[in-house]
């Protein structure tokens, strides 16, 4: 009996040693991977005063068999990163880059300058309060890629959410020190689909800890989100009329021809709404009170805002992230510089684009309302923030009605 007890103790000791060695090996490997992704030197055109910025960039594989990998750019919080939450940022489109928009124009600490050859420090960066993780999603966007071309024809919301989930899990393996941090997801425009869908997937899989790792999800944030096709389309028409973008005659024609309750617009509705879209060729749809950019077609001129997708369904507007009259031009210039791509550990076989039109044109739009996810996650206690820039004429205005109709408190805020 004593002999068996000693044997059991020896087995337990050996297993403990093996576990420790395995854990140490994993930690060393993750640290090595982190350091290989660290951006060591100043980026081209980065002011020398910005040396205290700690950031990493590289790839996370989401499907080894198909050779799919998503590119990320991660900025640690400016102070106390070990105590601040982790926030993932996704841009929409579909097909637009979170590096080119979110990181380099909007909320990242380094903004591309107006010459497209350098960077300025952003005093209002969100990494003052959080560790910021920008992800170029889905594959085919920015520096993200697949070695299986047929993947690009399969893109839909479910596909994107699954890849994004695997990215989060694998990224946390590379950066295990952030596993315990409060985790938030954020984004804008068509990320009004991506963000809630990823949150729902994490919430669902967190309830099955034997098969899935825990992600410490606390909430999500969406800005000017595409939320529900009926509310969003109805809202665009009403906004265009109430802000005198279109005449009474155009508004009446569209209002009489369209009920927006059907996925396929009638020919009369399509013709009427095309008259609405035509008016946005004269102004900037992302800030109707600001001058438009005349540099080239990557600006917010409405020439590129109307795309035919999903058979004969509506001409879907590309909703770029935030107000952007010309900065997309500058980011394309900057991120196509060879020394910038090298510094960020990026792989590219062609020109980097702030938005990939082919993603938008071939995307399979199969989900037309995200509102049921809101209902589910609100009941589950997930924190949700929704914000809207009042000068942007696209997305979400009418979706506010849903929250009012379901007795959810809406707090109006101006800044």
Automatic annotation (TrEMBL):
Q: Name one GO cellular component term.
A: vacuole
Entry keyword annotation includes Glycoprotein: yes
Instruction: Tell me yes or no: is Glycoprotein among this UniProt entry's keywords.
Output: yes
- One biological process term in Gene Ontology: proteolysis
Keywords for the protein's UniProt record, in alphabetical order: Carboxypeptidase, Disulfide bond, Glycoprotein, Hydrolase, Membrane, Protease, Signal, Transmembrane, Transmembrane helix
InterPro entries, per the entry: AB_hydrolase_fold (IPR029058), Peptidase_S10 (IPR001563), Ser_caboxypep_ser_AS (IPR018202)
Uppermost EC category: hydrolase
This protein's name: Carboxypeptidase
């Amino acid at each position: 009996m004593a002999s068996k007890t000693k044997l059991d103790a020896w087995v337990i000791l050996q297993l403990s040693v093996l576990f420790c060695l395995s854990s140490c090996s994993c930690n060393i490997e993750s640290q090595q991977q982190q350091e290989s992704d660290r951006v060591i030197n100043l980026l081209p055109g980065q002011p020398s005063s910005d040396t205290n910025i700690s950031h990493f960039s590289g790839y996370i594989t989401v499907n080894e068999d198909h050779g799919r990998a998503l590119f990320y750019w991660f900025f640690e919080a400016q102070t106390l990163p070990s105590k601040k939450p982790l926030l993932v940022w996704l841009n929409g489109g579909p097909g637009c880059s979170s590096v080119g928009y979110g990181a380099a124009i909007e909320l990242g600490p380094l903004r591309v300058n107006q010459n497209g050859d350098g960077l300025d420090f952003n005093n209002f960066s969100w990494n003052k309060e959080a560790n910021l993780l920008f992800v170029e999603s889905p594959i085919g966007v920015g520096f993200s890629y697949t070695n299986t071309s047929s993947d690009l024809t399969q893109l839909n919301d479910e596909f994107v959410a699954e890849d994004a989930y695997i990215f989060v899990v694998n990224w946390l393996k590379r950066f295990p020190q952030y596993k315990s941090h409060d985790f938030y997801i954020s984004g804008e425009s068509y990320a009004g689909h991506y963000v809630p869908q990823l949150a729902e997937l994490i919430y669902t899989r967190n309830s099955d800890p034997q098969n899935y790792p825990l992600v410490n999800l606390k909430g999500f944030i969406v800005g000017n989100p595409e939320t529900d096709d009926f509310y969003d389309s109805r809202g665009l028409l009403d906004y265009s009329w109430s802000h005198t973008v279109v005449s009474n005659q155009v508004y009446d024609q569209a209002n009489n021809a369209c009920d927006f309750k059907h996925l396929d617009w009638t020919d009369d509705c399509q013709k009427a709404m095309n008259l609405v879209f035509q008016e946005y060729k004269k102004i900037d749809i992302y800030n109707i009170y600001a001058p438009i950019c005349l540099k080239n077609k990557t600006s917010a001129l409405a020439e590129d805002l109307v795309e035919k997708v999903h058979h004969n369904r509506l001409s879907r507007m590309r909703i770029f992230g935030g107000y952007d009259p010309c900065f997309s031009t500058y980011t394309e210039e900057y991120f196509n510089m060879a020394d910038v791509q090298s510094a960020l550990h990026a792989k590219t076989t062609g020109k980097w684009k702030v938005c990939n039109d082919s993603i938008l044109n071939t995307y399979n739009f199969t989900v037309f309302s995200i509102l049921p996810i809101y209902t589910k996650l609100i009941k589950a206690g997930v924190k949700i923030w929704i914000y809207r820039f009042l000068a942007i004429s696209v997305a979400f205005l009418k979706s506010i009605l849903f929250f009012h109709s379901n007795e959810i408190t809406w707090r109006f805020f101006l800044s």
